[in-house]
Design brief:
- The complex is a heterodimer of chains A (118) and B (112).
- Chain A has 118 residues and is mainly beta.
- Chain A is built from no helices and 11 strands.
- In chain A, the strands form 2 sheets. In chain A, strands 2, 4, 5, 6, 9, 10 and 11 form a 7-stranded mixed β-sheet that branches. Chain A has a 4-stranded antiparallel β-sheet with strand order 1-3-8-7, with no helix packed on it.
- In chain A, strand 5 and strand 6 form a beta hairpin.
- Chain A is globular and about 35 Å long.
- Chain B is mostly beta strands.
- Chain B has no helices and 11 strands.
- In chain B, strands 2, 4, 5, 9, 10 and 11 form a 6-stranded mixed β-sheet that branches. Chain B has a 5-stranded antiparallel β-sheet with strand order 1-3-8-7-6, with no helix packed on it.
- Chain B starts with a strand and ends with a strand.
- Classes of the chains: A mainly beta (118), B mainly beta (112).
- Chains A and B meet through strand 10 of A and strand 4, strand 5 and strand 9 of B.
């Protein structure tokens, strides 16, 4: 166990559905991340939150909408997704905010949500 | 641009042998590197890290070597065990953004 949990572990949705992925970290970290992992690409960073503020958004389509209500929880709201959005969505957290480059930046990952868009 | 790549997408080793997984990185300004292990159905798990002011770092059965001259990173696993079967990712701390750039991963298969 890494101290980062994600729910649900598996999700199947249609293109017109709206769903949300949830991530919770029990490590007291200040930064949280959403990544997309598909079969043929390296891990792709989607969003970064530092102290509940979004600090990076890597040109992610607006059909993905993150929310960070507090430093322990991170959501990814999904709507009108496409089949190519099917992937493993990973949440991670790190102790230090990304701006603190002198500190150890190790990220701890959750188990991921396997998303299938029909 | 930034990129982290792996030389070998797959690696098969006999149980008990040593494994070496390689990684090339493109940005000479990167100063922190991590190796992750990802087992089937799980998220990436931290294995070992190294800063650019070091050439070598050892953990339990694992050693990471950093060659800044050729921008090369390797992970050595001693006495490879069946439980080591997984995909291994290297990641560099990007000096241009605030986060890591991950390589595509190498699948390690341990043969009985």
């Amino acid at each position: 166990e890494t101290g980062v949990t994600q729910t649900p572990r598996h999700l199947v949705m249609g293109m017109t559905n709206k769903k949300s992925l949830k991530c919770e970290q029990h490590l007291g970290h200040n930064a949280m991340y959403w990544y997309k992992q598909s079969a043929k690409k390296p891990l792709e960073l989607m969003f970064v939150y530092s102290l509940e503020e979004r600090v990076e958004n890597n040109s992610v389509p607006s059909r993905f909408s993150p929310e960070c209500p507090n430093s322990s929880h991170l959501f990814l709201h999904l709507h009108t997704l496409q089949p190519e959005d099917s992937a493993l969505y990973l949440c991670a957290s790190s102790q230090d905010t990304p701006q603190d480059r002198e500190a150890t930046d190790t990220q701890y990952f959750g188990p991921g949500t396997r998303l299938t868009v029909l | 641009g930034e990129s982290v790549g792996l030389h070998l997408p797959t690696l098969s080793v006999q149980e008990g042998d040593n494994s070496i997984i390689n990684c090339a990185y493109s940005n000479s300004a990167s100063d922190y590197f991590i190796w992750y292990k990802q087992e089937s159905g799980k998220g990436p798990q931290f294995i070992i890290d190294i800063r650019s002011n070091m050439d070598k770092r050892q953990g339990q059965r694992v050693t990471v070597l950093l060659n800044k001259t050729v921008k090369h990173l390797s992970l050595q696993i001693a006495a490879t065990q069946p439980g080591d079967s997984a995909v291994y990712f290297c990641a560099e701390n990007s000096p241009y953004g605030q986060n890591f750039v991950f390589g595509p991963g190498t699948r390690l298969s341990v043969l009985p």
